[in-house]
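The authors assume throughout that readers already know how a fold can be written as discrete tokens. A single example would do more here than another paragraph of explanation. An entry of this sort, consisting of the sequence and the corresponding backbone structure tokens, reads as follows:
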Amino acid sequence: MTRLGYGNLLILALRVLAGEVNAFLNLSLCEGPRLAVRTRVSRPRSEFPRTAVHVGGGKAPYSFRVLPPTPRLRRTDRVHKTRRSFSVGGPRLRVPTLGVSFACTVDKDPMKAAVITRYGSPDVVKIREVPKPVPAAGEILIRVRAATVNRTDCGELRAHPFFMRFFSGLLRPRRTIFGLDFAGEVEAVGAAISSFKPGDRVFGMCPSRSNGAQAEYVCVPERTVAAMPAGTRFDEAVVCEGAFYANAVLKKIELRAGHKILIYGASGAIGTALAQLAKSSGAGVTAVVATRHLDLVKSLGADRVVDYTVEDFTRIGEIFDFVVDAVGKTSFFRCRKLLKPGGIFAATDLGPWAQNVVLAIWSSITRSNRVVIPVPGRIDGFVGFLKSRMEAGQFRAIVDRKYPLAAIADAYRYVETGQKAGIVVIDIAAADESA
């Protein structure tokens, strides 16, 4: 491979940002050659089949390897190689070496998945057959039994807000399978995995930069997986996404026993997780919900429940150390009368007219920290933490509805209404999933 100039580096960066790598390799269409792409492959070359083709040369830390499948490629799927480019059954893609590798493998065993190749409404979500992923050395292949559709998925589907495209793909989604939560059984493990074995019942959370769990199989790093608590059904274990964001909020505000917290929108995935985790911390919890969710939040241990359709929650005659907007539908200016001196307003969304972002930036500049938008950290260790809360009886799943994988577009439509309580489960397997 030839040495790169800054112009080529810029072109490659723009193409990757725009998701063109996936498009040119026909990955997003899931038609033509069946390919799986994984970046930064660390497996030694000796582990690949002898038919592997090493494209390029030099001493770059990573190079490209194109691995033909066990069944022979069709004539139109042959690998084209030139000095600075290669293609696989499609338009030629100029890909210079940039410390990045793509391991392209063809799996003869397809799986069904909810595939999203462009931004848009739930109508763009299609059920297709795609290659079954193969775990790397530090990965676990999960046979997914249950997944979810949540606000995060809906935001990624519509690329809203627009600036999220700079992370998920400028023109089209970088990943074609969404879904953060999963519960299922270990199908296979990588060479470096010793803590899990095939058949183990596990749950966890997919990294947001790799393909997700709205499919029959998913590969995930070991650090994002934990064994399911005994007696837990698969549909009761897909609870990580809401709890992950809720835990980030509570860590940011440093909630302690004796604090008083008001949660606006305590019936959604984040809200129900906030209520349970805050209560387990010894805090006094006031939950603000609609009439139909009053009994739900009472069952989660809320000390006081306010029906916002009947009374103004800002005039309840009580003040709090923290007010958390779990649904992005209220504002600091409306809630500040509820805060004690030095109290904090925490938001999990941009808020009306994106004012939470502006206020959070201003609070940071002035060091008042009156408004914060907590940013979740790494997943490492979180799933184990949540498992301990579940085993202690301090956290449980609130399941609103279930949909089969074939009807996942309807699940997206329902979540977009903003009326769900708890989680919306996708039943991936048709088998009986009772514990």
About this structure: Residues 115 and 126 are 5 Å apart (CA to CA).
